[in-house]
Amino acid sequence: MDLRQAATDVRNRAYAPYSGFQVGAAVRGASGAIYAGCNVENVAYPEGTCAEAGAIAAMVAAGETRLTEVFVIAGSPTPVPPCGGCRQKLAEFGAGDVPVTMATTGGAEQVMTLDALLPGAFRAGHMDAG
Ligand code: THU
User: What is the pTM of this model?
Assistant: First the structure.
């Protein structure tokens, strides 16, 4: 199964009764394995989680902490970019050159690197002693 298929499948299980906006995400771990996640909303709105966060959690739960590819899909007119928080979450586990494919259920796709999505990301090296 490829990333698009995994993200498409999991998107169908998204729990989004409040926004009605279902999102699916899939990441490829360094091992080559694919991990998928969907958005899970909550009646206390800020408690909802994004699809990307779910995919990352599945990857870490499986024992991997590096990702090499990201795919996000939603039913929107233009490819939906990860939110700011998810960009930071993805940067925790992926290098700046990791490609993030943003897709629509209609077939549009846009690819950007993590660096392009989050220029100047706060990374562990910033906490080195000065
Ligand atoms: N959402 C994601 O899951 N990922 C994104 O990249 C953008 C937004 C979700 C959060 C919320 O459940 C819904 O989309 C509307 O913001």
Answer: 0.96
